[in-house]
Amino acid sequence: MPAHPRTADSQRPSAVVRAGNPLVLALAGSACISASAVMMKLSGTNAGTAAFLRCALALFLLVPLAWREVRRVGARPLRYQAMDIGAGVLLGIDMVFWAASVLTVGAAVSTVLLNIQVVVFPLLARLVSGTPLTRRFVLLAPLMLAGVALASGAIGNPQPGSDPVAGVTFGAVAGVAYAGYLFLMRLGGGGGGPPPPPGAPPPPPAAAATAALLGGLWTGIDLNPGWPAWGWLITLALVGQVLAWLLITAALPKLAPNVGAALLLLQPVMAFAFGIAIGERPTMTQAAGCALVIATVWYTSRPAPVAP
Question: Does the pTM of the predicted model rise above 0.85?
Fold first, then answer.
């Protein structure tokens, strides 16, 4: 989730995770991330509480890691620190709206909806830096959006008890905010390396503060949710976030780009399976929409053919 200049979100995890088969590490990290929506749903908390506490609890481990990294490589220039703060704000917005999406359309579907950032990120790059859009992107973007509409239930038959309009709205806002986060991280990190997977980057204090403000104004924040909510939220912060980030950032540099992209694409697939395991029952049209989104992301992420 880049070598120049570093942020608290892009520390090298080699000091923590040094050994192990990179394929196994990536699979384990993807599984941790995929279970995040289920952990959040099982906590039984509202969107603001889940988003804020997952950020705040993760900081107990991330702040010492960040401090160690600053002592090792030095502080970042003010320009990049401003980008870090902006990225943290967008990440906090993403977490609150993604949690709301989980509660309205389910853990299985909400993780798939977050992949709308695959459409938004190239558009941001086009608007800000003039990066041209590929022909493949122009052709596949409408398919991705159709898949999102089907997956949420806005088109077709929604899962009983879900709110497809709210779900697709919350998921879209989360995807746009996450795409903005990725874009600022790329700018602040020198533009190198693969983008961080959804849910994996550790939240800086700006993300926790944003989640506290937005969540507090929108849903309210319960600082004493009781048990087992505390257990699920602690697991979400430490396993679904910190451990997942350490595993994946240790594995991706050692894997071929196409292998890393394929492994990260397993996240929505595994999240869908985890949602089914806790009793969610997406309809056939929603399952078809999820399959269309995943297939579109896979095809879009394939390397372009090289002319002989």
Answer: no
Whole-angstrom distance, CA of residue 71 vs CA of residue 195: 25
- Please state, in angstroms and rounded to a whole number, the distance separating the CA atoms of residues 221 and 49: 4
Residue among 174, 195, 24 at smallest CA distance from 97: 174
Could you report the per-residue pLDDT of 90-136, keeping only the tens digit for each? 989 999 999 999 988 888 788 777 777 777 777 877 787 777 877 87
